[in-house]
Amino acid sequence: MARFTGVYGFPESAEPAQRLAQVLGIPCHIADLHRFPDGESLVRLPQPVERAIVYRSLDRPNDKLVELTLAASVLRRQGAAELCLVAPYMAYMRQDAVFRPGEPVSQTVIGDLLGRCFDSFVCVEPHLHRTPTLESVFIGRPAVALSGAGPIAARLRAEGVPADAVVIGPDEEAAPLVEGVARPLGLLPVVGRKVRRGDRDVTVALPEDAPLAGRPVVIVDDVISSGETIFSCARAARAMGAASVRVFGVHALFGGEISRRFEAEGLGVPLSCDGVPHPTNALPLAELIAGALAGL
């Protein structure tokens, strides 16, 4: 018998929640949300689930966080003995220290909030660049941080990626993702250096000795939001003679204006994993997440 007895999704992420439930062979229920005129949320979960997976990606997180705490309270009151939060995109992880006086350590705050509601966690490429493990965020709770490298590598393998292709990440924070994509395909990994002066003021420099001339380049990054990091990285690769450039992101958080920028920059449509619902979704995460759930 499967350990978990049902998946609960939310309207904006119903399809990936249903795909996960199908892989696990258990029912999927979608929460009913109502928003009052003053902005408050009402969450209805009419179907009790004994050991529930709650699936919700925490992009645009503020309302979602409140609704998750309400959903967890309903499931507990209905008798749920175990709740696992599958949040492919986990919010508020980047602020893991006080960088300027007066700022919160958001990672700790959100870890404590959600840790009071859920028994275990599965996330994909959370911002853990200075935090050793996801369990360090959700203290005392089993937690798994998955890499998005596998689905990207699988797509490249299926397409027959050229043997001389180079996999590039824009900075050291992307190095594990770059290695995870390049290594199983036998491709050359290259990591750049990013200088960020603001949310939309970014420059990426690539190693001067990177052998890019005449070779196809694949840029990978965990999150694509403003797109500026990718655009700068692509320009740097082309300046060094890259024959072609394509882009993969684990989490796509950009809108239509940035999509048009990708086209204008000659990069086509980037491909993303389906944790955050987005028009660029092409890389399913259900099998990867199901494997992690089996090991919790």
* Largest sheet descriptor: 6 strands, parallel
The average pLDDT score comes to 95
N-C termini distance:
15 Å
3D shape: globular
Radius of gyration: 20 Å
Give me the strand/helix succession: EHEEEEHEHEEHEHEEEEHEHEEH
Derived from helix and strand composition plus strand pairing, the structural class reads alpha/beta
Strand order of the largest sheet: 2-1-5-6-7-8
How many structural units, i.e. domains?
2
Task: Report the portion of residues in β strands.
Answer: 25-35%
Q: How many individual β-strands?
A: 16
CATH architectural arrangement of the largest domain: 3-Layer(aba) Sandwich
Low-confidence segments, given as residue ranges, are none
If you consult CATH, what is the topology of the largest domain? Rossmann fold
Characterization of the model:
The protein is α/β, with parallel strands linked by helices. The chain has 2 domains: 6-146, Rossmann fold, CATH 3.40.50; 149-283, Rossmann fold (3-Layer(aba) Sandwich), CATH 3.40.50.2020. The protein has helices at 14-24, 61-77, 106-115, 149-159, 175-185, 228-239, 256-264, 286-294, and strands at residues 6-9, 28-30, 32-35, 41-44, 51-55, 82-87, 120-124, 143-146, 166-169, 188-191, 193-198, 201-205, 216-224, 244-252, 271-273, 281-283. Strands 2-1-5-6-7-8 form a 6-stranded parallel β-sheet, sandwiched between helices. The relative contact order is 0.12.
